[in-house]
Amino acid sequence: MQEKGLTSFILVFFFILVYFSLVYSLQELEAKKNFTEAQLIEIENASFKRKLIEDSVDSIIKEEIEKEIAFGSDEPKKINKKISEKLAEFFSLMEAKGTEFKEIQSEKKYSEIKITGKKAGKEFIEENSKIVVINLKGKLYLVEFIYTAGINKDRLIGAKIKENSSEQKFFIPRNYSVKVIALRLV
């Protein structure tokens, strides 16, 4: 009889241990799941910020080209200067929000490049980009902005976008271009 009682006690004790270990494991899995979800949200937020920057750069270039052509300027250097000024202005605005744009000299793949260097300025942008203006017919123009990245294709503009522990890189890529068909109003 004592043997049955001891065996029953050991079995009950064993099942209680299994139960508590399962409860502990489930709590640990829940904590890992919550941590993973938080990291994914951070990554998504950083990606969203990068996409906003990409769209803003495109928009700034298009708007400046359209504005310059609309009001009578079809001189490539003047258009390039205006675009460079507006991009540098935007980069300064983003710096106030924690994203610094840097001048980078590197021939490596984008994933291998470290975002270091001095602050990207309008002169750097202007020197490493060009504008092509083609008069299509009368007041209609095709204008292309090209970020050439310099003669050796190694002069980049990049930024690190941080969201807590998550990090994304942004680059204006080599040979990046924006084409706009613009109408002269003047």
Sum this structure up briefly:
The protein is of the alpha+beta class and 186 residues long. The chain has helices at 2-70, 76-96, 122-127; strands at 101-105, 129-137, 140-147, 155-163, 166-172, 176-183. Helix 1 packs antiparallel against helix 2.
- Elements, N to C (H/E): HHEHEEEEE
Number of folding domains? 1
Instruction: Enumerate how many helices there are, as a single number.
Output: 3
The number of distinct β-strands equals 6
Average of the residue pLDDT scores: 89
Low-confidence parts: none
Could you say which structural class the secondary elements and strand pairing correspond to?
Answer: alpha+beta
N- and C-termini, Cα separation: 108 Å
**How would you describe the shape?**
elongated
Radius of gyration: 29 Å
Beta-strand content bin: 15-25%
Question: Strand order within the widest sheet?
Answer: 1-4-5
The main pleated sheet reads as:
3 strands, antiparallel
Helix fraction by DSSP (H/I, runs of at least 4): 40-55%
